[in-house]
Amino acid sequence: MSEKKIRVGLIGAGGNTRAFHIPGFAKQDDVEIVAVANRTRDSSQRVAQEFSIPKIHGHWQSLLEDPSIDAVCIGTWPYMHAPLTIATLEAGKHVLCEARMAMNHGEALTMLEASLRRPALTAQIVPAPHTLAFDRTIIEMIAGGYIGELISIDARIAAARSYPDGSAQQHWRQNRVFSGDNIMSMGIWYEAMMRWVGPAKSVMAVGQSVVRHRHDASGRRVSMEIPDHIDVIGAMAQGGQMHLNVSTVLGHAPDLADVHIFGTDGTIRLRQPVGGALALFAGKRGKGELEPVQVDPAKRGAWRVEEEFVNAIRGMERVTHTDFFTGVKYMEWTTAVSQSLHKSRAVLLPL
């Protein structure tokens, strides 16, 4: 495979696909995007013209039947991730699927099972990218005993820093039909937390739809089933607790993101102020206030999703960001959050 050109087909070509995946594949040697199937033939034609893609397909099924395609990048909304991923693997093609992995834990498991039936094919989920620059440093600090034993990981995320506003049309992320159990940016932050401190073993969630109604694309007034403000607490498998608050309705929220990892001997803080970039801070017992951490450039991660996918196909590396086992883990937690919200009780993991 290392000497063969890899020909990629796109199913769904939304914002992330155009901004990241198409340019990312273009940077790889002997990789060509040869076809696209978007929601309509007209939108497929526009994408093909913009990026000089030679072929369009009127339906994703015909793209999967195209024998010239070796790998497929799925850029649709979550409601199509499981059926498209399974169909791609059954067609004998490698698959890169946009995050979030699926609508729920059950769908994620079916995707994993399909990938295990075809171990020769590379299967990858697009990772949460926002903490990549800091992950290795945080992981090594914790593993090296910097914080001691974990007491709590506390994260407060302003997914949108604004007061409630019901005038905007319903977004697909606010529609359970398209998003399933996924809620705002909750899942990408839990994925990052798992990299640092491992998974949770229990979940308790409370949430609300502060904006109770919006208008959908057809102009109908519809109720909001996905919270725009949520608090999740739980116990971690390694010990300690977690608290995650995500909201799109907090006017004048002090930070876009503020995450503390509190331990018995030290504290790590990852903060993104309004108008600024994420930065890392840390402090030890008896050493005064938290101080900036200078991340070693050699340990500073970056977006390399398409490179990793291509290298995995060629047998040059294995998928780490993100493999299907990790995707199932974060979808299990996401579904547990949904169950806790609807049943008003704690949910134990694994499900």
Supply the key terms:
alpha/beta, single chain, 351 residues, Dihydrodipicolinate Reductase, domain 2, 6-stranded parallel β-sheet, 9-stranded mixed β-sheet, Rossmann fold
Task: Give a brief outline of the structure.
With 351 residues, this protein is α/β, with parallel strands linked by helices. It has ten helices and 17 strands. The radius of gyration is 21 Å and the shape is globular.
Report on this structure.
With 351 residues, the protein is an alpha/beta fold. It has two domains: 6-128 and 304-321, Rossmann fold (3-Layer(aba) Sandwich); 132-302, Dihydrodipicolinate Reductase, domain 2 (2-Layer Sandwich), CATH 3.30.360. Helices cover 30% and strands 25% of the residues. The strands form three sheets. It has a nine-stranded mixed β-sheet. A six-stranded parallel β-sheet has the order 3-2-1-4-5-6, sandwiched between helices. Helix 5 (105-116) runs antiparallel to helix 10 (324-343), helix 6 runs parallel beside helix 8 (186-197) and helix 8 packs across helix 10 (324-343). It is globular and about 65 Å long.
Looking at the overall shape, the CATH architecture of the largest domain is 2-Layer Sandwich
CATH superfamily of the largest domain: Dihydrodipicolinate Reductase, domain 2
- Count of structural domains: 2
Report on the biggest sheet.
9 strands, mixed
- Give the % helix: 25-40%
H and E string: EHEHEHEHEHEHEHHEEEEEEEEEHHE
The CATH class of the largest domain, by name, is: Alpha Beta
Report the sheet-strand fraction: 25-35%
Instruction: Give the tally of β-strands.
Output: 17
Distance between the termini: 39 Å
**CATH fold annotation of the largest domain:** Dihydrodipicolinate Reductase, domain 2
The radius of gyration computed from the alpha-carbon positions, rounded to a whole number of angstroms, is 21 Å
